[in-house]
DNA sequence: ACTTTACAGATTCTATGGTTTTGTAAACCT
DNA sequence: AGGTTTACAAAACCATAGAATCTGTAAAGT
């Protein structure tokens, strides 16, 4: 199949774009630089990802999937549901703390029109703030799937959805605006989840 | 006392700034326009509020206090704690839905470098997103005070603080990224609060 | 207490080219 | 096929410079 090669090229392209964004901001990302860094021609970028906004969206989506992969792994690892949520939350927060791309996006919120730097860093920030609904939906779906494995959830479908939505929003809130350490926050959120799920 | 007049001038200035921001964005706000609209000289703006960033901060703070006043009113009105939270949440979400200033700030997230419009609308957005900690702290403090009136809260100080922090973050999340109607969201959050507070 | 007037420095606007980047398309290679 | 090179028009960006505006401070006036 060509799938392996195809995914590999696309993966390398997105990784290159993420690197450049983390180093110099999204405005500094050009199709040429992405292509060069990935060892590929510029047109391959267009063939693979289309336009630059599409590249940005794919890059953010890829990073989201990296986070969601951790969530899936942690939710599958633990036996206890609350422990699973706690572990997934802590891993997400730790991962967020040390994620250069995420920090580049968040940093773009502050210095918007600073000096000679370009101002268009903010094209991607809405994915985390005002247009976070796709992100919330994706995370919600992942948790919803993995939650079937646990027997001690006796909530109706609506209440179940509400609870999942809440934990996703809370984690996202702490990603953008950390309260204390990831471990402490994970403890707190796990306590809330415990109270909500089996009140 | 001069306090009445002083507060009135300051109030008129902040209201003028909020109007201009709602109409044309924060970048279109100049000290002269604010002064003129408030029927006051430009220097009075400087005497009263100092610099323009200070004006922006005061303007946001004033809007926050308008929201928190609603929270206080609703928390004081109801007898049942869960009903109080539900009512406060719904009022906040309804108020947020129809708040022009808030929408001006949120809209600035999208069109950053659009056409000929100035790009510096984003100076105020971080107050709601990446620098929301003061906002969270203020809201948390308000709720914390009003919560003493309700006897059926048997949480330790830490758990109590965690619960309040969570409800504040959840409401803020829904202000920026509404899920469904204010009433439905208020129902859902009230249910969560009920489960958490008296699990 | 507020206004008017004045002022230097910074920032923004306008307008101009020159440059880069985007996005599409073809021909070519292997 | 998957990929590259080359080419190209349109758009976006950059640099420069002068005009206009805005900021922030100060003083004198009412």
UniProtKB/TrEMBL annotation, chains A, B:
Q: Which GO terms describe its molecular function?
A: DNA-binding transcription factor activity; transcription cis-regulatory region binding
User: Keyword set for this entry?
Assistant: DNA-binding, Transcription, Transcription regulation
InterPro entries the UniProt entry points to: AlkX_C (IPR040611), Homeodomain-like_sf (IPR009057), HTH-type_TetR-like_transc_reg (IPR050109), HTH_TetR (IPR001647)
Q: Which organism is it from?
A: Nocardioides iriomotensis
According to UniProt, the name of this protein is TetR/AcrR family transcriptional regulator
Q: Which residues bind DNA?
A: 30-49
User: Is Nucleotidyltransferase among the key words of this record?
Assistant: no
Q: Which residues form the HTH tetR-type domain?
A: 7-67
List membrane-spanning regions: none
